[in-house]
Write a structure and sequence with these properties.
about 25% helix; single chain; about 30% strand; disordered N terminus; two-stranded antiparallel ribbon
């Protein structure tokens, strides 16, 4: 029987395939999204002690009161962000975290602009993408609630922390026809939601209960 972790510390192909099969069973249909998740080595984005659990469909702690999201939620948010499009030009991500969602996006988006407020997480992610030679990811250490106005407009915005009210700055940086995906609500009462921009109007849809860390302001060095 193939073990979850090989002697060299790398996760087996079987463990990855089990995860992809699980995501399909849960309703993820976009094959490009599934391929992007399969091609993003989740064990690179978790702590050493948790690598044996990297391909479980569960959120895991990454330190600094943050988590790496459940793969199903990453797949679902990415699928909703893409909509009927196979690829996007530019996406803004609020909350880089360990960089797993960023890695998935980098395979489906021409340019990913990602903001992380926690200094050690920002530096860790920046080092990873540099080492991997991934040159379509642009990172910034800043308060994500203000977005990245000098790089606007974005085809999509994805927020990886929950807030009762999405900052207006993020809506303002979307193109006409763009989509924002985010968890909204207070702790214990969060819904994953999308906002589709048409002119000055937004079509809002909530579609799943979720649990995310709260969206915070300010910067930690």
């Amino acid at each position: 029987m193939t073990s979850t972790i090989s002697p060299t510390g790398f996760i087996s192909k079987r463990a990855k395939q089990r995860l992809i099969d699980t995501l399909r069973q849960k309703g993820i249909q976009n094959e490009a999204v599934l391929s992007a998740i399969a091609d993003s080595p989740r064990h690179d984005f978790v702590e050493e002690a948790l690598k044996s659990r990297a391909y479980e469909d569960k959120a895991l702690p990454i330190g600094y009161r943050q988590t790496i999201s459940q793969p199903y939620v990453v797949a679902l948010m990415t699928e909703r962000l893409l909509g009927k499009q196979s690829r996007l030009r530019a996406v803004l991500e609020i909350g880089t975290g360990s960089g797993f969602q960023t890695s998935v996006l980098s395979k489906l988006v021409d340019r990913v602009y990602t903001i992380e407020r926690v200094g050690p997480l920002f530096r860790r992610a920046k080092e990873y993408f540099s080492e991997q030679g991934i040159n379509n990811v642009f990172l910034r250490h800043a308060d994500g609630t203000a977005g990245w106005p000098t790089r606007r407009p974005f085809d999509g915005v994805i927020v990886t922390a929950a807030t009762p009210q999405i900052p207006e700055a993020l809506f303002a940086q979307l193109i006409d026809g763009g989509t924002l995906v985010a968890p909204e609500g207070q702790e214990g009462k969060q819904k994953l939601s999308t906002w589709k921009k048409t002119g000055q109007q937004f079509q809002h849809q909530s579609f799943r209960d979720v649990t995310f860390v709260p969206l915070e302001t300010g910067v930690e060095h």
